[in-house]
Design brief:
Elements (H helix, E strand, L loop, with lengths): L9 H8 L2 E2 L6 H5 L3 H4 L2 E2 L7 H16 L2 E3 L5 E3 L4 H14 L19 H24 L2 H6 L2 E6 L8 H6 L3 E3 L3 H6 L21 E6 L1 H6 L13 H10 L6 H11 L3 E4 L2 E4 L19 H23 L6 H16 L4 E5 L6 H10 L5 E5 L2 E5 L1 H10 L9 H10 L19 E7 L5 E8 L3 H16 L4 E5 L1
Parallel strand pairs: 1-2
Antiparallel strand pairs: 3-4, 5-6, 5-7, 8-9, 10-12, 11-12, 13-14, 13-15
Length: 476
């Protein structure tokens, strides 16, 4: 277990937070043709159009850069996202759960396979390096730092099989940090670069940079004694913005065809419509209503209809009215933050179409995962609050793994909002939720001391979902 004293790299978080998730089937070479102002502000991976996977990757890396932690009861803190190895495992689990993998079986395990350790490691390395490199560059433009260390040396930090010729020719060269033409030339998209004056200097380039002080810069004739170098942050921002202006008709048509409603056009400029803040989640076309009561009722009725249609169509056996009603109430309660988790084992007929329809109606931030016939819909913040109260009771590698393990061991009662970790304990009582006509529609077990409180809470789930008065009854 790794304990930490967290410290965020704010400039790196700024870079990642400014990027919008952009899914497309473009290859690396095709992405290189996209204007740098769009490309540098996009979180993407070549040929990946699944924005859910990209958003999950971005969220993990955001946690990693921010050193976000969970505080244990003893006051110590453990990293939420601590390593590349953890990133690879969580993204592989995500892909397996959501049926994401190579279309061509011959590509399994290769760089073309998004589930391979090689590809996922490359994503993690590239995205973290991009954020860190921007952060170091931005810090290097601080006037005081720039005055003391006005230059940097272009160095090789790792051997590669096929070095880029411009990099070989300029290895060891020292230039001012403000020499924009030189640093852009070392990151030229023409030979696989990213088109910005900071690293990384292309995929697997093996190149880096090293600060050089004023004495070295003066000895090389790069700066005069007493001369004050001027930061170029605004110049670079203008350069990136200008690259999205004045686009010809062919490029505009290409952008519209490739990204659809992910981009918007304003006069001669084009920009992402997606999130511009790392805390936003635009990974799916989620619906957020202004009124929480309205949202709760819409989700309740929509989920009820989805489950009834799903069962009738996929295996010919309609879901019972009680089960569809309880699913709607529970999932709407998760969406509104009243209940941490909904779980049900639907068996093999459960399909990816079911999960897609749920994604369409759930608000941003609510997770829905289907795996091995089990459906999980959960509110990460609410789940984390329950786990933080008793972390030893929830072993697991990631938040979802903790949920899944609690389901397997039948200790998920607190996550489900039942007021007791398990139904198997002495002195338990059963609580039934009663509809307005007096018919029981749902039941759960809890501790006798908690029965009234959680009976009222779960009855309120139904009342808010359907706008009718549900009650509860305790069987002692």
């Amino acid at each position: 277990m790794q304990f930490v004293d967290p410290m965020s790299f704010e400039e790196a978080l700024e870079k990642l937070g400014s990027q919008s998730v952009a899914g497309s089937t473009l290859t690396s070479a095709e992405w290189a043709d996209i204007p740098v102002g769009l490309r540098d502000n996009a979180f993407f991976s070549a040929t990946i159009e699944d924005v859910r996977l990209l958003q999950s990757s971005k969220d993990f890396i955001d946690d990693f850069l921010a050193n976000r932690v969970t505080t244990l009861d003893n006051g110590q803190s453990i990293l939420d996202a601590g390593s590349r190895q953890q990133f690879v495992k969580e993204m592989q689990d995500f892909c397996m759960t959501h049926g994401i993998g190579p279309l061509d079986p011959d590509q399994a395990g290769t760089m073309q396979d998004i589930t391979s350790q090689t590809r996922l490691s490359l994503i993690f390395n590239t995205k973290t390096q991009q954020a860190y490199s921007y952060g170091w560059w931005k810090q290097g433009m601080d006037p005081d730092i720039l005055d003391e260390f006005p230059a940097q040396r272009f160095i090789r930090i790792q051997d590669v099989k096929v070095p880029r010729i411009p990099h070989q020719l300029n290895e060891g060269v020292v230039k001012l940090k403000t020499d924009l033409p030189f640093w852009l030339s070392m990151n030229d998209p023409a030979f696989g670069g990213f088109g910005v004056p900071w690293g990384p200097w292309g995929f697997n380039s093996g190149m880096g940079e090293q600060d050089e002080d004023r004495d070295t810069a003066e000895q090389l004739g790069l700066i005069k004694p007493g001369e004050k170098p001027q930061p170029i942050v605004e110049d670079v921002n203008h350069m990136l913005q200008a690259s999205t202006e004045g686009l010809d008709d062919d490029m505009l048509t290409h952008l519209r065809a490739t990204f659809g409603d992910q981009v918007e056009f304003d006069d001669n400029a084009v920009k992402w419509k997606g999130n511009t803040n790392a805390n936003q989640d635009n990974s799916t076309p989620r619906r957020d209503d202004d009124a929480s009561d309205d949202l709760t009722r819409r989700i309740g009725s929509d989920v009820r209809a989805i489950f009834e249609a799903f069962r009738s169509r996929d295996n010919g056996e309609p879901l019972s009215p009680e089960d569809s009603i309880s699913a709607g109430a529970a999932i709407s309660a998760v969406a509104s933050g009243r209940k941490p988790l909904y779980h049900e084992a639907w068996g093999t007929p459960a399909s990816s179409d079911l999960i897609r329809r749920l994604w369409d109606i759930l608000p941003s931030g609510i997770k829905a995962i289907l795996g091995d016939g089990h459906l999980y819909v959960y509110n990460p913040e609410a789940v984390q609050a329950v786990i933080a109260a008793n972390p030893d009771a929830y072993p697991g590698y990631s938040l979802f793994d903790k949920i899944r393990q609690s389901v397997i061991t039948d200790t998920d009662g607190d996550l489900l909002g039942y007021g007791a970790p398990t139904r198997f304990f002495p002195g338990r009582v059963k609580v039934e939720i009663i509809d307005p006509s007096g018919i029981p529609v749902f039941g759960f077990y809890t501790a006798r001391t908690n029965a009234n409180h959680f009976g009222a809470e779960r009855a309120l789930d139904f009342t808010q979902a359907y706008g009718e008065d549900y009650s509860y009854e305790i069987f002692r």
